[in-house]
Amino acid sequence: DLQICQHRAPTCCTKKMEESYQAAVRRERTQSIQALNFELKYMIVGHITAFQEAFESLLRFAENHTSSLFESAYRPMAKEAAEPVKELFTDISLYILGAETTVESAVLRFFDSLFPLVYSRLINPGITDLSEDYTECLRLTRQDINPFGRYSKNMVTELSKSLWASRMLSQALSLGIEVINTTEHAALTKECSRALVKMQYCPHCQGLTLIRPCVGYCLNVMRGCLASVSELDAQWREYISTLEYLTNEMASSHDLEMALLGIRNSINEAILHAQLNGPQLSATVDKVCGQPKQQEGTLSSDNIVPVKEATETQTLVMAHASLNNKRREFINYMKRSRTFHASIAERLCDGDLVMRDSSTCWNGEDVV
């Protein structure tokens, strides 16, 4: 009653053993593919982790760099500006990790929160009554009177270019893991598991436990079984090219590091612009939001302070080099995996599975 290992000679197999063999080949095939995938998956997962760690470190550095602007140049609003700065960098982080948000909404939300502070602490430092309604009116007015000139729009443009490549790379790496996981759990067809039993276990039914499959026979069986996996070859090659393109984009004109560190200067230019146009802004705000309560006595609104640039170049250079090295190492490794899906049958037939350097092997019917 054998279905797979039928042979003219006497056999020591039963139908139940054939069923056990089918379960065994399915398990073994999954394990073999997992072993092949392990290094590739380990490399991608490792790079995702390294990329995120380097990126988080860079974000913290850029956030501190930006906060120090308020500490050194705009002390009257430094404490209150801490929360909007933190929110801006949180939004940027979420954007890169693939959240449904945009760079423009993050930047404009930040400037909406910044304007009431600039207006009440720098342009009109005598204001005491900054009620919720008045603050909200200032936030909404910001969109119409554009107190920060072209600087808010420039910041959106610069960051959008730089962060886009990082966001795409982050999503592409996650996609790579998905593809690899899918190939690991590709179901074997009934014909395939029967062919694998015939190749690996039918010799055992004749007592030939040391005979292994012939190389050509193994390749034919494996290519048939893994046809759906090898069909991914063209898309995988294209995927590697896309990764290469994205890493080059990040390292060239759309430099993530420089864009994040440039946030500080953009905000400073924007605040200076608002201060220089203080009288016109005050006139417009008074018409729209009314006049707030003023403190007794006169306080000069002319407190434009030149910014002292922090000497953090060395730390930046190290963070920049670290991220660039990680990208370079990763893409060089991934380029070597271009043929991964096309050569999977050859790799499975390499090693212990087939007979090497021997005059006898199993061809599916007999020892040859």
TrEMBL record:
Protein's job: Cell surface proteoglycan.
InterPro entries given in the database record: Glypican, Glypican_CS
Membrane topology note: Lipid-anchor; GPI-anchor
Keywords from the UniProt entry: Cell membrane, Glycoprotein, GPI-anchor, Heparan sulfate, Lipoprotein, Membrane, Proteoglycan, Signal
Protein name: GPC5 protein
Localization, UniProt: Cell membrane
Family membership noted in the UniProt record: Belongs to the glypican family.
PANTHER family: GLYPICAN, GLYPICAN-5
Superkingdom classification of source: Eukaryota
GO cellular component: cell surface; extracellular region; plasma membrane; side of membrane
BP term (GO), one: cell migration
